[in-house]
Amino acid sequence: MAIIDLGKVSITWRGTYAGGTAYTPKDAVYYNGTSYICTANTTGNLPTDTSYWNKMAEGGDVATTLTTQGDVLYRDGSGLQRLGAGTSGHFLKTQGTGANPVWAEAGGGLVQTQFASSNSSYQNGSQTFSSMVEATITPTSASNKIIVLANTTGYYFNANSNGTDRNHYFRIVRDTGSDVATISAEQRSDMQTSSFRVDNTSMFDRDDPNTTSAITYKFQMKGQGGGWDYYTNHNSTHASQIILMEVSV
Amino acid sequence: MDAFFKRVQAIKVLYPSVVRNEGDKGFDDNGDEVSMNETDITNKITEQDTERANAATKKTNDKASGIAKLKADTWSPLTADEVTALFGE
Predict the structure, then answer these.
(1) Cα–Cα distance between B29 and A146 in angstroms, integer?
(2) B21 inside 8 A of chain A by CB
(3) A225: contact with B, CB 8 A cutoff
(4) For residues A59 and A79, what is the distance between their CA atoms, to the nearest angstrom?
């Protein structure tokens, strides 16, 4: 009885196309999102070469556009496009109708904080400003803002049995090393008679330092002389603190 | 009266030019540090503590003696300190 070689009678799936593999008719492969069937013996001819291959099933734009882990698909004016994985920590930002999305930093975020609390006993009855507490921060961007919160709790003491009103002056300054600028100031009136008075003074402001160099913010006070003193920083009840917050805009 | 307050009061007597204290350092109105002797400061604090204690004791005694004079009905005159202790200034 004669034996007739019918060859392949069904499709043989060969997996992803490889250039060094010999393919024969009815071999099927996967290549760039589309499956192909071999129509003639071939080695090294891409499945897109119609002399040896025919398409079986086309994967379409989605399969060919997305190529890498983290890719995001979007449509521009002409068709589907790939937005490659962006910088870690960035968020997808729409730019509105008629524009393509992009990766971007989250706006208005808190970038860093610095905190300081002084435990160096402080008394000032002079007419010269000096720091009760200070903290240093190095902005990550010149366009970022610095929010400064400062607080001191202490007591005033008037050594005179009688007298006229005296003032105490508080301020927050930005010291860049070469320049000192006052960013906030406040005046407090003091009592006239000999006594203690415990008080709390808080100040806060937003600063635009416009630098990425280290800057020091100082919470300072001075008096008006004449025996009126301010005491703080010598126990947990009488202390001064400053908080610096860098925010992106 | 806390320890730091006592220290400043002692420094005010010993070093009148010191108008600002930060920790154990004293400064004048120009912001210049003033050299201070810690032993002298400690001794002055002790001296002022004694003065305050003596003043408190005297006030207590004046009050007691003033009350005793009033109760005794002997018409002994009160001293100025007894009057202050009893009725204030």
Answers:
(1) 32
(2) yes
(3) yes
(4) 15
Distance of CA B69 to the CA centre of its chain: 28
Is the distance from CB of A231 to CB of A122 less than 8 angstroms?
yes
Q: Which residue has the tokens 């521009």?
A: A76
Q: Which tens digits make up the pLDDT trace of B13-55?
A: 999 999 999 999 999 988 899 999 999 999 999 999 999 999 8
Residue A13 tokens read as 């799936």
**Alpha-carbon separation of residue A239 from A66, A153, A154, B21 (angstroms):** 59, 5, 7, 15
Q: Is the pTM of this model over 0.95?
A: no
Instruction: Please tell me which residue of chain A has the smallest CA distance to B29.
Output: A126
Task: Look up the ipTM and state it.
Answer: 0.71
Number of Cα atoms under 13 Å in the Cβ half of residue A214? 6
Per-residue pLDDT reduced to its tens digit, A81-110: 899 998 888 889 999 999 999 998 776 788
| Token couple for A149 | 């919160």
3-state SS assignment for residue B56: helix
Mind telling me how many Å the CA of A95 is from chain B's nearest CA?
55
Closest-CA residue of chain A to B28: A126
Secondary element (H or E) of residue B49? helix B38-72
- A44 CB-near residues (< 8 Å, 6+ apart): A19, A20
Q: Quick check: A79 and A73 in contact, CB under 8 A?
A: no
DSSP state letters, A26-76: TEEEEETTEEEEE-S-EES--TT-TTTEEEEE--HHHHHH--STT-EEEE-
Q: Is A143 on the interface with B (CB under 8 A)?
A: no
Return all residues near A88 (Cβ < 8 A) that are at least 6 apart. none
The answer to whether A196 and A157 are in contact (CB under 8 A) is yes
Interface contact flag, A120 B22, Cβ < 8 Å: yes
